[in-house]
Design a protein that fits this description.
Blueprint (H helix, E strand, L loop, with lengths): L1 E3 L20 H11 L5 H4 L3 E5 L3 H13 L2 E5 L17 E2 L11 H11 L6 H21 L24 E2 L5 H18 L3 E4 L2 E9 L2 E9 L5 E5 L2 E4 L20 H9 L3 E2 L4 E7 L17 H4 L1 E5 L16 E2 L1 H5 L9 H16 L8 E4 L1 H15 L7 H27 L8 E10 L2 E2 L12 E3 L17 H21 L13 H20 L5 H16 L5 H21 L11 H25 L23 H4 L1 E9 L2 E8 L14
Parallel strand pairs: 1-20, 2-3, 2-10, 3-6, 10-18
Antiparallel strand pairs: 4-5, 7-8, 8-9, 11-17, 11-19, 12-16, 13-14, 13-15, 15-16, 19-20
Cofactor: FAD
EC number: 1.3.5.1
Membrane topology: Peripheral membrane protein
């Protein structure tokens, strides 16, 4: 391992300029929108924008920018934009509308997000996100998103982790699908009008740089195998997160890091790569045959109670264990928040109980998520009261409660039954933490621009809004905020200076050289003709990452992981075997390229985790913990964003952006 740190550890980098507006926090975004340079409508149609990725961030950005008059090209590797991974989100989207009159506000959403991220996020970006949240809901309602409503027609809310208010808007257990369909409809309208040119089944394999600016991409047609050159005055990367570096995750199997990794190698700094979110409510691993894991929405913690037996290695079935022999450990440890503590805390608590011998199921790597008490008491009794049933029986209460739960979570319960063969209406779900979301990503300034001029990163592809841990229901919020409400303003600050730049022909030497490098890499992969499949290398990488850079990390394990990943990389480039060729449809070739990028990313993640000698949010270094296993931050030495600059194979330079908190009191997180 070689880490080149060209700056003193206590000196912050002058390469990172956040461009945060001056003035009071609550006025920064308003003032910015009123003073940012604009592009004349007549000039917009002469400016071309490339959008890579068509999930919530990409689809909303492409649709909005096209409607504003820009010429947009949108790319996705799926056969349709509506298959983006955003569709898999289940539980909801946050917004500070205070419909429940329970004390919510823009400031409270801002504070909860900063605190939930363990004070490792930039204040200005998070406050802007909270400000935009209410507008997102109005936008989506206007598009026809079928949010849940109460009897009077008002939009309903439910609770999510890390908060004490109800601010999560939802559409049963398929909120991401409904939101994506809204953004997809807006995108397809612009496609139909000729304002967006859609390239499906295309994968971006390189950023084209001309005179230090991003001026286009090289994409591969995944059906024909042809490489293509595309010019753009600006390039937006909206390609999601990189959780599949762990192999098993809740991400779609195609989700990858390639687009932002290519940008990183071209000079875009990578922010906080080791900040990974482990989701506490996933269906446990059942065997080596699995290729992905299935999420059970965090919204289920709103109505379910998490517990383990008080007796170690208890062989009894869940329903046979009496109430007084159950340990509702989150309610015991964190009485103020109970089952709704943030995800990192809930995940570590589940791991601790299982490691201590209280796990359940065949593997003992699971805990129970039980709905029976709320079926009876919360929903059943309310329904019985509505129907005027006095002294209802337990059977009646359960039946009435089931109908309410089916309306709220029916598709999730059906999914669980199909996968496990167990009926969660009758027996508790078994859950265990799994890799879900990555808070790290390309470093961006207030404008969402990376350290490469003209190259932007939106949504989960950037690092900006969540710090060391993302609160549930905030991913959808950030993606739509970036696409609908942020980039349409901030991109003008850059493009207003580009109106004299004519479209650059794609026979420019920079395009020719970039395409050649892509083809050379493909040919190199195909020429190895080794003995091992790309999938086998991905599994081995995932095992290293999960065991040594997963829910818990330590110095010894991280150093071992770096050495093991370097050896794996050497073996990959000498022994991978890819069937088929570069001409035509070849998913094995696509997979190999993505795995090669994951291997390099995995090394950087371990380097980042090794350099951060503290525990914060999802980054839990075993050497740094309070009594009771809580994360022990080091604000004096590590209150900064780690922004890594690529300097060559296995070489990175660490740059630091200081995090300054002027509007909140910094404290150890306390959810007790």
């Amino acid at each position: 391992m070689i880490i080149t740190e060209l700056i003193d550890r206590n000196k912050m980098s002058d390469k990172l300029i956040s461009k945060t507006p001056e003035g009071p926090l609550s006025e920064k975004w308003t003032k910015y929108r009123s003073t940012v340079p604009l592009v004349n409508p007549a000039n917009k149609r002469n400016l071309e924008i490339i959008v890579v990725g068509t999930g919530l961030a990409g689809a909303s950005a492409a649709a909005t920018l096209a409607e504003m008059g820009y010429a947009v090209k949108a790319f996705c590797f799926q056969d349709s934009p509506r298959r983006a991974h955003s569709i898999a989100a289940q539980g909801g989207i946050n917004a500070a509308k205070n419909y429940q009159n329970d004390g919510d506000s823009t400031y409270r959403l801002f504070y909860d997000t900063i605190k939930g991220g363990d004070y490792r996020a930039r204040e200005s970006n998070v406050h802007r996100l909270a400000e935009n949240s209410a507008n997102i809901i109005d936008q989506c309602v206007a598009q026809g998103v079928p949010f849940a409503r109460d009897y009077g027609g008002m939009l309903k809310n439910r609770s999510f982790g890390g908060t004490q208010v109800k601010r999560t808007f939802y559409a049963a257990g398929q909120t991401g699908q409904q939101l994506l369909l809204g953004a997809y409809s807006a995108l397809e309208r612009q496609v139909g009008l000729g304002n967006v040119k859609m390239y499906s089944r295309h994968e971006m394999l390189e950023v084209v740089m001309i005179d230090g600016k991003a001026r286009g991409i090289i994409a591969r047609n995944l059906v024909t195998g042809e490489t293509e050159r595309h010019f753009g005055h600006a390039v937006l990367l909206c390609t999601g997160g990189y959780g599949n570096v762990f192999y098993l995750s809740t991400n779609a199997m195609g989700s990858n890091v390639t687009a932002i990794w290519k940008a990183h190698r071209q000079g875009a700094f990578f922010g906080n790569p080791c900040f990974t979110q482990i989701h506490p409510t996933c269906i446990p691993v059942s065997g080596d045959h699995q290729s992905k894991l299935t999420l059970m929405s965090e919204s289920l913690r709103n109505d379910g109670r998490i517990w383990v037996p008080k007796k170690k290695d208890d062989p009894r079935a869940a329903n046979d264990i009496p109430e007084d022999e159950r340990d509702y450990y989150l309610e015991r440890r964190y009485p103020a928040f109970g089952n709704l503590v943030p995800r990192d805390i809930a995940s570590r608590a589940a791991k601790e109980r299982c490691d201590a011998g209280y796990g359940v199921g065949a593997t003992k790597q699971a805990v129970y998520l039980d709905f029976r008490s709320n079926l009876i008491n919360k929903y059943g009794r309310a329904e019985a009261s509505k129907l005027g049933i006095e002294n209802p029986t337990i059977e009646q209460l359960v039946a009435l409660g089931k109908e309410v739960v089916k309306e709220e979570y029916g598709n999730l319960f059906d999914m669980y039954k199909q996968i496990t063969g167990e009926d969660p209406y009758e027996v508790p779900m078994r859950i265990y933490p799994a890799v879900h979301y990555t808070m790290g990503g390309l470093w961006v300034d207030y404008n969402l621009m990376t350290t490469i001029p003209g190259l932007y990163a939106l949504g989960e592809a950037n690092f900006s809004d969540h710090g060391a841990n993302r609160l549930g229901a905030s991913a959808l919020m950030q993606g739509l905020s970036d696409g609908y409400f942020v980039i349409p303003y901030t991109i003008g600050a850059y493009l207003s200076g580009e109106i004299k730049t004519k479209s650059i022909p794609t026979d420019h030497p920079a395009f020719v050289e970039a395409e050649k490098s892509v083809k050379d890499r493909i040919n190199k992969l195909l020429s190895i003709k080794g003995t091992q499949s790309p999938e086998s290398f991905h599994k081995r990488l995932g095992k290293i990452m999960w065991e040594k850079c997963g829910m818990a990390r330590n110095e010894k394990g991280l150093k071992e992981a770096i050495s093991e990943i370097q050896a794996l990389k050497k073996e990959f480039w000498s022994d991978v075997r890819i069937l088929g060729d570069a001409d035509g449809f070849n998913p094995e070739l696509d997979k190999a390229g993505r795995v090669a990028d994951f291997i390099e990313l995995g090394e950087l993640m371990c380097v980042d985790a090794l350099s951060r000698n503290e525990s914060c949010g999802g980054h839990f270094r075993e050497e740094y913990q309070e009594d009771g296993g809580e994360a022990k931050r080091d604000d004096e030495n590590f209150m900064f964003v780690s922004a890594w600059e690529f300097k060559g194979e296995s070489q990175w330079e660490l740059n630091k952006e200081p995090l300054v908190y002027e509007n909140i009191k910094i404290a150890q997180r306390n959810y007790k």
